[in-house]
What we know:
The structure holds two protein chains of two kinds.
Chain A: H1 5-19, H2 89-110, H3 122-127, H4 134-155, H5 167-177, H6 180-193, E1 198-204, E2 210-216, E3 227-233, H7 240-243, H8 247-254, H9 260-273
Antiparallel strand pairs in A: 1-2, 1-3
Helix pairs in contact in A: 2-4, 6-8
Chain B: H1 21-43, H2 53-60, H3 67-84, H4 96-106, H5 109-121, E1 127-134, E2 137-144, E3 155-162, H6 169-172, H7 176-186, H8 190-196
Antiparallel strand pairs in B: 1-2, 1-3
Helix pairs in contact in B: 1-3, 2-3, 5-7
Amino acid sequence: MKCSVSTLAAILCLVAAALLPTAAEAQITIPTPTITPPTVTVPSVQPPSVTMPSTQPSATQASTSASGYPYKLAPLPYDYSALEPYIDAETMKLHHDKHHQSYVDNLNKAIEKYPDLQKRSPEQLLRDLKQIPEDIRAAVRGNGGGHVNHTMFWEIMKPKGGGEPAGPIAAALRTNFGSFDAFKTQFNEAGTKRFGSGWVWLVSNPGGKLEIVSTANQDSPITDGKYPILGNDVWEHAYYLKYQNRRADYLGAWWNTLNWDEINRRFQKASTGL
Amino acid sequence: MAHTLPPLPYDENALAPYVSAQTLSFHYGKHHTGYLNNMNKAIAGTELESLSLVDLIRTVAKNVEQKTLFNNAAQVWNHTFYWNSMRPGGGGEPGGTLGELIKDSFGSYDEFKKQFITAGTTQFGSGYAWLVKDGEKLVVTKTPNAETPLTDESKVPLLNMDVWEHAYYLDYQNLRPDYENAFADNLINWEFAEKNLERVFAG
Ligand SMILES: [Fe+2]
Ligand SMILES: [Fe+2]
């Protein structure tokens, strides 16, 4: 053991020297359960001034089950190894089965005592976050965001994906960013700059313009009235086993996994909702 | 003048199996070094270059436009502090002055440990759990990302635990509480924490 008192003193000296003079996502299958006007005791939701694409029921929500847990984790839409070599199977398994599952479990737990909220899709919870009771707001923000963000994440990727975008999104990216390459560069830069845990997004803002934003932790653009068309998870758990500190390499490789059909579907949903 | 990092206070494999050599190699060699290089680049040729690390952190903390520099500088300090908060053969209940203080402040060592682990587990995203001296009492706190008790001069940091995923993902993956338990039971450097009781963190 090297931590004898005298070594410790030496360590402290070094520390002192240093101190001193130098000195989450869902293909938002947003349940559109005909949302019956919530009889929720929560202040009724005012018509959002921003028309967001209607939240249709999706993979993120199920009707309240007998167990009383309304939110469910959909199976990964492909094999854990399907995104190799860009994202490894072990990462996919942990990310989906452990991280995403725990967001779902914690969201269910958070709203356990608010049965009326359970009728809402997770996207609705995030959109109207200010109206969520304060004692569970942070939990809904983190875990509801984690659920919706990751659901989207799985759905906008696919095996043998990537390549140049086609369809309406391709033209929109050219119009908004000059070229697909310029868009990728800006997006990767925003992802690299996000300090700590978070996401980088392409969103449609309330005016219908496309923009790149990044959010901390599991914050969703939906809470800001913006619709996420695609997003990349830059929490370290998304890439650490394969890329360690090299987040930029992960951001670069990720484009090879994209499912442009699904991204076009989301883009059209954003456009029609606005 | 550019700042430098003190060497790790032990071998890279000294904390295994609780924190692996591979983790320490990336954490010190890439993350910590990366923060240092970013900080040095940002202050090169500016008047900030002449400040001590602690003064630099406290100075830029007051200016939101210098958030990126604050993040890098605070991470340089936080990580040096974190390396010293661990030692091979550490952890468990401390004796001496600190053992008494912990009993006075928390009621028992077990209660301290519970609060410390809860702080780390509930720090959503990236950040740290801390044991700090606040007046005559010890308290457990948590901070997000690079935030540090150093910017609150009423508090004296005694030890910290990095709960960024990079600190434990190679060894524990999603199981942050397993890492935190191993940290408390086998790694905490109580001698370092005790010396900090008397330290003045200043330029
Ligand atoms: Fe994630
Ligand atoms: Fe770290």
